[in-house]
Amino acid sequence: MKDEAGSLAKIAKAFGDNGISLVYGEAVIVEKGKTAIWTVVGGHGDLGPEELEALLLGDGDALKVEIIPLE
């Protein structure tokens, strides 16, 4: 995500708007004022991995999404 005010909130809102609970999250700035990473543990609601990725890239304004199933 971009390292700017509101970026994390916008992605979190995309989760919340779709009824997806987050259990854990950790944000790290990669390059000050440019990029950050937010690692999240949570469910996916009724969305498949491709749908969740599209949601976060679109509504959440994420720059890149990597989904790792915890099985």
**What class do helices, strands and sheet pairing give?**
alpha+beta
Distance between the termini: 26 Å
Largest sheet: 2 strands, antiparallel
Calculate Rg over CA atoms: 12 Å
Number of helices: 2
**% residues in beta strands:** 25-35%
Arrangement of strands in the largest sheet:
1-2
Mean pLDDT: 93
SSE order, one letter for each helix or strand = HEEH
Q: What is the tally of beta strands?
A: 2
Task: Characterise the protein shown here.
This protein is of the alpha+beta class and 71 residues long. It has one domain (7-58). Helices cover 30% and strands 25% of the residues. The chain has helices spanning 7-17, 49-58; strands at residues 22-31, 35-42. The chain starts with 6 loop residues before the first helix and ends in a 13-residue tail after the last helix. The model has no long low-confidence stretch (mean pLDDT 93).
Short description:
The protein has about 70 residues and is α+β, with helices and mostly antiparallel strands.
